Amino acid sequence: MADYHILLLGPPGAGKGTQAKRLCETYDLDHVSTGDALRANKDMETEYGTPRSFMEAGELVPDEVVNEVLEAALTDADGYVLDGYPRNLDQVEFLDDATELDYVFFLDVDRDVLVERLTGRRVDPETGDNYHVEFDMPDDEEIRERLVQRDDDEEDVVRDRLEVYEENTEPVIEHYRETGELVEIDGEGTPDDVFERLSDAVEGDD
Ligand code: AP5
Predict the structure, then answer these.
(1) For a designed S-S bond to 24, which of 29, 80, 198, 204 qualifies (C-beta 3.0 to 4.6 A apart)?
(2) Is the beta carbon of 135 within 6 A of some atom in ligand 1?
(3) Which domains are delineated in the chain?
(4) Which residues have a catalytic role annotated?
C-alpha cells in the first residue's frame, strides 16, 4: 500500500481525530496529531510555560514548542495522517520545508454542529478513544464509567477555540485553496458517511 501523506484540516470538532483513526487503520498509516502529542506532554516545562497553560485557555501553543513536537513525530512516520497542524501561516511554511503532501482534505462542518460535538465529547483516558454522549457511546459499561470530558471541551473554552481557529487557521485553509491543493469534504452526517467521502477521494485518485 502507498505511503500516503495526508493532511486533515478542519475546525475544532470537525471530526479530524475520528477520521484520522479510520484512515490510519484502512491505509496502514501513522496518526500524527499535535493535539495528542501536546496532551501527552502537557506539563513539559518550556521557556514559554507549559503546554497546559495554553491548551486549557483554548489558545495556540507557541510555534517553537509545536514545531519541535511535529518534527519529532514526522521523523518517525513513513505514511501519515497529520491532524492539528498547521494552524497558522508560519506553521504552513515550516511544514512546507519539512515534508511533501499528497492530499489536503478540509472537513467542512457548520459551527452549531461543532459546539454540539465538542461539548458532548467524552474521552476514554486508558485508550484515548473519543466518544459522544448522544451520537456514540460505548456498549461496555466499564468503559462508559471511566469516560472523562477534556478540559478544553467546556462550552466557554470551546467558543474561545473557535475564535482562535477563525483568526489563525482560516487563512491556512485559504492558502491551500489558493494553491489548488484543498479538497473540501462535507464533514456532516455519520462518521461512516464522512469516511466514505474521504476514502472515495483517496481511492478515486489512484
Ligand atoms: P487538538 O487536539 O488538535 O484539537 P482541535 O483541532 O481543536 O480538534 P479536536 O480534537 O477538538 O476535534 P476533532 O476535529 O479531532 O474532532 P473529533 O474527531 O474528536 O488541539 C487542542 C489544543 O492543542 C489546541 O487548542 C492548542 O492549544 C493545542 N495545539 C494543537 N496543535 C497545535 C498547533 N499546531 N499549534 C498550536 N497549538 C496547537 O470529534 C469531536 C466529537 O464529535 C467527538 O465526540 C466525536 O465522537 C464526535 N463526532 C466526530 N465525527 C462525528 C460525526 N460525523 N457525527 C457525529 N459526531 C461526530
Answers:
(1) 29
(2) yes
(3) 5-110+164-203 (3.40.50.300)
(4) 16, 87, 121, 150, 161
